[in-house]
Structures are given as structure tokens and as C-alpha cells.
Amino acid sequence: MTVTVYHNPSCGTSRSVLELVRNAGIEPEVVLYLKTPLSRDQLEAIARQDTLGARDLLRTKEKLCAELGLDKPEVTDAQILDAIAQHPTLLNRPVVVTPKGAKACRPASVVEELLP
Q1: Which residues are identified as catalytic?
Q2: Contact (CB, 8 A) for 59 and 8
Q3: Is the peptide bond before 116 cis (omega within 30 degrees of 0)?
Q4: Rounded CA gap, 16 and 108, in Å?
Q5: Which of 6, 62, 83, 90 is deepest in the core (most CB within 10 A)?
């Protein structure tokens, strides 16, 4: 099973999710998205997963989210994805992608839905 974790090592939830995946006997592909930001196309592909949408990818607790007005209901998915592509700190971490789908795994236990 291929598992990709879009990871921020300074985030406790992200570290917990990575540990849960490894405890399930899976060594995931770990993408340090702040060092290697996702392209707009990559973000769109993740958001198109049936279990996830653009708003799910947005870290609404990030101060920049409100500063850019992304927390308003009229903001489109395209605008959200554009903003995350420009400002990787807006990605709601960690995001996990498996053959079962994709989720922003907050709380960490959400990752269990994506594992065998």
C-alpha cells in the first residue's frame, strides 16, 4: 500500500500521524511540504479525492488565512488552492493520501480510516 504523508515535523499532530502510519507497518513517502511545496496541480489532484475538498486542505487556524480573507464562505475552491500553492503554511497538516482516499488528519486518529 502506497501512503503519502504531507508532513510538518514541527507539528505534534503531524508527528503523531506519521507514528501511527509506521506503527501500522507502513513506511510512507514523507513529503516535507514547507521545503518542497506542492504545485497547484498537485493540490487540485489531492482535493479531488472523494473524501477531501479544497476547504479541507485549508488551515483556517493560520493567521494568514484570515488576513487573505480565505475564511469567507464566498471564497472559491480555486482561490483556496491558489493561496495554498503560494503559501504552503496554509496547508492543513498533515494530509495523508492512500488508495482509500485522502484526508487532513486532524485529529491524528483520522488516519486510521485510511489504513488497512
Answers
A1: 11
A2: no
A3: no
A4: 6
A5: 6
Q: Are 59 and 92 in contact (CB under 8 A)?
A: yes
| 27-39 average pLDDT score | 97
Domain covering 4-114, topology:
Glutaredoxin (3.40.30)
Q: How far apart are CA 111 and CA 96, in angstroms?
A: 7
3-state helix, strand, coil in the chain (%, to 5): 40, 15, 40
Contacts of 85 (CB under 8 A, 6+ apart): 37, 38, 39, 40, 43
Please check the confidence at residue 50 and state whether its pLDDT lies above 80: no
d(CA 97, CA 49): 9
Q: What is the pLDDT of residue 5?
A: 97
CA atoms within 13 A on the CB side of 56: 19
Q: Specify whether the CB–CB gap between 92 and 56 falls below 8 A.
A: yes
Answer yes or no: is pLDDT of 51 > 90.
Answer: no
